[in-house]
Amino acid sequence: MRGAKSAKWVAGAIVVALAATACGGGDDSAGDDMNKGKADPNGIVTAQLSEPQNPLQPANAKESQGSRVLRTIFAGLVDYEPGTGKLEYVNAESVTPNDDSSEWTVKLKPGWKFHDGTPVTAKSYVDSWNWSANIKNNQTNSSWFSDIVGFEDVHPEKGDPKSDKMSGLKVVDDNTFTIKLTQPVSYFAYKLGYDVWAPLPEAFFKDPKAFGEKPVGNGPYKFVSWEHNKLIKVRKFADYKGPNTAKNGGIDFKNYTTADAAYSDLRSDNVDWIEQVPTTALTSYKTDLGDRAIDEPYSAVQSIIPAFYTKQFKDIDPKVVQGLSMAIDRQTITKTVLQGTRTPADSYVAPGVLGYKKGALGDIVKFDPAQAKKLIQEGGGVPGNKLSIQYNADQDHKPWVDAVCNSIRKSTGVECTGDPKPTFQADLDARDNEQVKSMYRGGWVLDYPVNSNFMRDLYGSAAAGNTSGYSNKEFDKLSSEADKASSIDETVKLYQQAEQLLAKDMPAIPLWFYKVNSGQSKNILGKIEYGQDGDPIFESIQVKQK
Amino acid sequence: MGRYAARRLLQMIPIFIGTTLLIFLMVHILPGDPVRAIYGDKAPDPAQIAQIKREYGFDKPVLEQYVHYMWNLLQGDFGKNLAGRPVTELMSEAFPVTLRLTLLAITIEIIIGVGLGAWAGLRAGKAADTGVLVFTLTVISIPVFVLGFIARFIFADELGWLPPNVQDSTDFSQLFLPAFVLAMLSMAYVARLTRTTFAENLRADYMRTALAKGLPRRRIIGVHLLRNSLIPVVTFVGTDVGGFIGGAVITEGIFNIQGVGNLLYRAIQTSEGSTVTGVVTVLVLVILLINLLIDLLYAVLDPRIRYA
């Protein structure tokens, strides 16, 4: 009998607890005004982080966690205005090309210092790039330097490097250096905003390994400590001379293993910002958090890509792929299955990037089953009348892949199934080894906000990001013309033309653009501003005075 | 006894080599290339990948890699992970955390489990006994992650009595909730085990003798009954220590504890061979030693058991 009683008690407790949340949710949104109060310039922001995979070296941060920290410690030559993607100078006074954009002159703002007090000079940049590009130093992002003359000498495809310097880099004086490129790139200055181009102080080269544990930068925050798997602390650098001085006293990056754990801490105000609301809370987080819920777009796109090396898609009529695209009900899927965490894609290029054109793909991305059927028929049908979409099952892709397949099956009668691979590694292996059976899932987050990044780097015949075997000489010609254009405006325009070419060719079916679904704590004053990579602009976060 | 222990220690060598080889091979056949995976969706750099593989020796045949690994292991070198951090360093961060959690869980498990079991065993067949049986059955049938989420939801999110996550693993008040969740399942088994042996031994001859001698009840139960009933419980708790250390993956995940379970989970996800093999190697050693310790403990509990 006692057992029956205790079971009753447990059930009772759960009911009480559930009732308590229902009330608690309402209180949260009504009771607090995040725009009220005064900012504390010394307040510390706590933010979610997972353990960075690599040491904290600027050229080594392939994944978002490490670069989230590095971006607070280092200030690059340039940055981008959030939302528009316009270039802004940070450590550079100017970055100017010669007539055909094949040689660039960088002038630095004088008087900048690293956190250890040594000056930031032209040499700090040139030495950094030479070291990072060197194959011996195993920096995962080293291929970013491949535009520079002399890259093969420090980074040969086989064997040992012939030199430890790229001949294309020349120090002119303390605050000036020049960069010679193997071919003209009109938007080269835009690439320079990426982490990999950060300068490094003298101390780095003495012991790069120790530096990776305790980096010294030139940015708005200086590094304080790194307790592995637990906490990374950075604090405001008082002598910072850049335009983006910190409006808070520093950031504590706290380690969380799961999104659920982080969300739990956000609700009890133990952490001020989390990167993503857990799937389990997507339907309730807006009522839980009220105004403090974050729902912001960022520049990333998800697509499904036909494997053009397969028999099925080798000689496919693009009309068939266009038809498949029109068979997908993006509106409904993003609203229901994805719970409003994405917005339907209307172009190859994500919004917030120079050259994004609203509705660039026109009808091809509109849901129209009748037209879809007609196009597929005109194009000769899908060979075998069935297809599959490969994805990695270790992330939350199954629901939307199934929904896309359902949509295709229902509106065209083409049989469609998901083709799961157990891990992301296995998924990548199949792509690299050209073993994808039919189509695969692809995703792309911007590297730099120019439309070329969403086209040439993915669909160019020789692009390393092109794993589908797609190739179009006309597109290649147009993109190399665009790269050589005399101005960035011209480049963007030519790439917009190239996008129309892609619309006829359909190297991929864009599905939707990503959004950040996150939240902030009651300690934060005002709404957190976001960059285009989906991360907050940490310097601008204000902490409420207690 | 000394010879027995020595023989058991020697037996560990082939077991150790066998298990590590198995783990090594299993990690090796995991799908996907960990070095390539660093690059994700973005374009890989074949030259750089080749260079990293050369540095880690991934370009050599598996058996050669294994021999090399074991040779380094003998010198106390567990290798390094793909970020270049020594695996010994990773383990020295994770093991103390899990050890604290495990010790706390075991303590809770023994105190509540044995206590509840003894209480029910002495009242076998009565309402209290049935109550404990129903309660333990309920606990056994709830999966640990459900238990973990409910516990966190009620005690941390809603009531606010305990912090929802563990930020500082040296603070036992933060570790209490996860340790309790971790202990729950085994606690139920310990209670049932204790209850049965208690009920059985109550009818044993030596109990009647002790009673007839006129010994006080406290002494009969505390010394004669308890000691004789603990042998199966000790075996169970002993094997549990090893299980806890390796199997805390779920609990550690829910409560954000950076222990061995988490380290192992992350390492398997990213196919970090050296970390997985290193952690499992240590776990194998721990479990082998604990098994030996349990076997030796039998003799202490029951002098009739002798080792040849």
Automatic annotation (TrEMBL), chain A:
<feature type="domain" description="Solute-binding protein family 5">
    <location>
        <begin position="92"/>
        <end position="465"/>
    </location>
</feature>
<dbReference type="InterPro" id="IPR039424">
    <property type="entry name" value="SBP_5"/>
</dbReference>
<keyword id="KW-0732">Signal</keyword>
<dbReference type="GO" id="GO:0043190">
    <property type="term" value="C:ATP-binding cassette (ABC) transporter complex"/>
</dbReference>
<dbReference type="Pfam" id="PF00496">
    <property type="entry name" value="SBP_bac_5"/>
</dbReference>
<dbReference type="GO" id="GO:1904680">
    <property type="term" value="F:peptide transmembrane transporter activity"/>
</dbReference>
<dbReference type="InterPro" id="IPR030678">
    <property type="entry name" value="Peptide/Ni-bd"/>
</dbReference>
<protein>
    <submittedName>
        <fullName>Oligopeptide transport system substrate-binding protein</fullName>
    </submittedName>
</protein>
<dbReference type="GO" id="GO:0015833">
    <property type="term" value="P:peptide transport"/>
</dbReference>
<feature type="signal peptide">
    <location>
        <begin position="1"/>
        <end position="22"/>
    </location>
</feature>
<dbReference type="InterPro" id="IPR000914">
    <property type="entry name" value="SBP_5_dom"/>
</dbReference>
<dbReference type="GO" id="GO:0042597">
    <property type="term" value="C:periplasmic space"/>
</dbReference>
TrEMBL record, chain B:
<feature type="transmembrane region" description="Helical">
    <location>
        <begin position="12"/>
        <end position="30"/>
    </location>
</feature>
<comment type="similarity">
    <text>Belongs to the binding-protein-dependent transport system permease family.</text>
</comment>
<dbReference type="GO" id="GO:0055085">
    <property type="term" value="P:transmembrane transport"/>
</dbReference>
<feature type="transmembrane region" description="Helical">
    <location>
        <begin position="132"/>
        <end position="155"/>
    </location>
</feature>
<feature type="transmembrane region" description="Helical">
    <location>
        <begin position="101"/>
        <end position="120"/>
    </location>
</feature>
<feature type="transmembrane region" description="Helical">
    <location>
        <begin position="175"/>
        <end position="193"/>
    </location>
</feature>
<keyword id="KW-0813">Transport</keyword>
<keyword id="KW-0812">Transmembrane</keyword>
<feature type="transmembrane region" description="Helical">
    <location>
        <begin position="229"/>
        <end position="255"/>
    </location>
</feature>
<keyword id="KW-0472">Membrane</keyword>
<dbReference type="Pfam" id="PF19300">
    <property type="entry name" value="BPD_transp_1_N"/>
</dbReference>
<dbReference type="Pfam" id="PF00528">
    <property type="entry name" value="BPD_transp_1"/>
</dbReference>
<protein>
    <submittedName>
        <fullName>Oligopeptide transport system permease protein</fullName>
    </submittedName>
</protein>
<dbReference type="InterPro" id="IPR000515">
    <property type="entry name" value="MetI-like"/>
</dbReference>
<dbReference type="InterPro" id="IPR035906">
    <property type="entry name" value="MetI-like_sf"/>
</dbReference>
<keyword id="KW-1133">Transmembrane helix</keyword>
<feature type="transmembrane region" description="Helical">
    <location>
        <begin position="275"/>
        <end position="301"/>
    </location>
</feature>
<dbReference type="GO" id="GO:0005886">
    <property type="term" value="C:plasma membrane"/>
</dbReference>
<keyword id="KW-1003">Cell membrane</keyword>
<feature type="domain" description="ABC transmembrane type-1">
    <location>
        <begin position="95"/>
        <end position="298"/>
    </location>
</feature>
<dbReference type="InterPro" id="IPR045621">
    <property type="entry name" value="BPD_transp_1_N"/>
</dbReference>
